[in-house]
Automatic annotation (TrEMBL):
Residues 43-144 form the SseB protein N-terminal domain. This is SseB family protein. It holds the Pfam family SseB. InterPro entries: SseB_N (IPR009839). It comes from Streptomyces litmocidini.
Length: 161
């Protein structure tokens, strides 16, 4: 008998109870087809990869060019204002060539990704995000959704993942 007055060891009961709960949960879980399970797994992998890239972006200093008015270079698309940022001078040069503006002098500032998302995006009029290496093959968008930008300026996507 243990200090609780029970004849059986408490750990044995806990393990068997947990095993029973796990079996019951499996029995009541909706059956998934192989393609549904693969889709769920792919979505989870994609979310983890995006979270990794977001964390890396937040810790990295990026180049943000200025427009002819001395403001951060932005582009409007589908009601969202995107701050254009570049991982290095080569990426900015590729953007300038793609725009046909390779001859002009591009003034830019180095800004930490976290500062862009947490300070600069909320200062934009309306929804905004960051477009990293726009016009390149390895471009990335950081959209105005919760978890990427501060909640008060995030767009509500209706609770879907």
């Amino acid at each position: 008998m243990d200090e609780t007055g029970d004849d059986q060891a408490l750990t044995t009961q806990q393990f068997s109870r947990l095993a029973e709960l796990a079996e019951a949960a499996e029995a009541y879980a909706p059956a998934r087809t192989a393609s549904e399970a693969a889709t769920v797994d792919e979505a989870a992998v994609a979310r983890r990869e995006f979270a990794r890239l977001l964390g890396e972006f937040r810790r990295t200093a990026v180049l943000v060019p200025f427009d002819e008015h001395g403001s951060l270079w932005t582009a409007d698309f589908n009601g969202v204002r995107w701050i254009c940022a570049f991982s290095d001078e080569e990426a900015l040069a590729r953007f300038a060539v793609a725009r046909g503006d390779a001859e002009r002098e591009w003034t830019y500032r180095t800004i930490l990704g976290a500062r862009l998302l947490d300070v600069m995006v909320p200062a934009l009029p309306g929804p905004g995000g960051v477009a990293l290496d726009a016009g390149g093959t390895d471009g990335m968008l950081f959209p105005p959704v919760a978890g990427v930008v501060p909640a008060p300026v995030a767009i509500d996507l209706g609770g879907g993942r």
